[in-house]
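Appendix C: a fully annotated inverse folding record. The material below is reproduced so that readers can follow the format used throughout the book. The structure is listed first as tokens, followed by the designed sequence.
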């Protein structure tokens, strides 16, 4: 039996779908006259388009699951570049192991879940995500790069948004693949939050950083994350959620309405909400809890909400593509909430966001 080499597995790269090349508006509109998930997806697409057409609404995108390794990276990068999203809340793997990883010049490869020996893959330093292969040796370089960024920072607590901004600054100087969500967000001043930041390659890098610097080191402050995103809600007031998957990003983002109330700030519930998920509503998981259920917690209004029970690689290009080709985003201005969180006044930022003003930062 011929022994396989790493190069035998890592051949064809995963390509990222380009929503600008596929006008799905007629298809999605036609799906609205069908039933079941097709009709749900059509309504969700219209709700997302409504968010973009509402001049007072800021859009928060939440991401969970292996999305960018599966070919959805360019969808999100283009949404950021075209003012279709004003803040992002994500899991760490999507932002670091998948986006930052590719921005360093590495790739994800087409694999298969069938007929492969995962023990052999481990020996070859190949990691598998269902039908996708990743070079573990390259992933270690990603880990090491996050350690270098951590080493370069002043020894203090940081929000994940601040650290990801430092990652964006690094890519602006050293990035090899410019089609990056982290880089696009850095350039467009769109904040990215990763509440569970240590649960990814950056976690390895920061653990190594603190191991080498046991006394003076940078650290992650999850409470600062929560406060910063709540500040975005207070400033924006009217918000719409576009949620892919569930988990921590979903709950973290829904909770900022309650957090504002705890801080003594009266803000409206999220005005619009769309969620794409495959989680079963009967299993008690947060990922599957309905948006109507969130209304009982005072988080999401029920007039414009839609659950779409579909796998993300099918639904997201249709929903985002529909809104892209409808074109409401062309009249939106960048909110630049990263600058807000860095202390820059709203007038200087030039956004057309909500009427809120954070106390002490008018």
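Designed amino acids, in order:
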């Amino acid at each position: 039996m011929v022994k396989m080499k790493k190069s035998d597995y890592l051949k064809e790269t995963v390509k990222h779908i380009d929503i600008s090349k596929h006008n799905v508006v007629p298809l999605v509109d036609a799906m609205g006259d069908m039933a079941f998930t097709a009709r749900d997806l059509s309504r969700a697409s219209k709700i997302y388009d409504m968010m973009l057409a509402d001049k007072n609404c800021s859009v928060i995108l939440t991401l969970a699951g292996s999305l960018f390794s599966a070919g959805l990276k360019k969808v999100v990068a283009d949404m950021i570049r075209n003012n279709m999203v004003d803040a992002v809340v994500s899991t760490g793997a999507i932002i670091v192991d998948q986006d930052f990883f590719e921005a360093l010049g590495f790739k994800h490869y087409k694999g298969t879940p069938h007929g492969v020996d995962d023990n052999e893959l481990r020996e070859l330093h190949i990691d598998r995500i269902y039908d996708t292969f990743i070079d573990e040796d390259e992933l270690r370089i990603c880990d090491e790069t996050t350690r270098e960024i951590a080493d370069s920072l002043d020894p203090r607590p940081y929000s994940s948004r601040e650290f990801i901004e430092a990652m964006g600054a690094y890519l602006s100087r050293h990035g090899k693949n410019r089609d990056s969500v982290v880089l696009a967000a850095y350039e467009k001043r769109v904040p990215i939050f990763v509440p569970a930041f240590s649960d990814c390659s950056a976690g390895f890098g920061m653990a190594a950083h603190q191991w080498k610097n046991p006394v003076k080191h940078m650290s992650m402050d999850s409470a600062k994350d929560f406060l910063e995103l709540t500040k975005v809600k207070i400033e924006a007031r009217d918000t719409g959620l576009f949620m892919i998957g569930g988990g921590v990003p979903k709950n973290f983002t829904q909770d900022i309405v309650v957090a504002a109330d705890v801080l003594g700030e009266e803000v409206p519930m999220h005005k619009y909400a769309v969620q794409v998920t495959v989680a079963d509503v009967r299993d008690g998981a947060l990922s599957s809890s309905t948006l109507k259920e969130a209304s009982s917690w005072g988080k999401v209004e029920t007039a414009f909400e839609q659950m779409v029970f579909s796998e993300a690689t099918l639904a997201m290009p249709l929903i985002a593509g529909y809104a892209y080709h409808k074109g409401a985003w062309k009249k939106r201005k960048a909110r630049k909430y990263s600058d807000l969180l860095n202390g820059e006044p709203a007038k200087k930022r030039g956004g057309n966001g909500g009427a809120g003003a954070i106390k002490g930062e008018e």
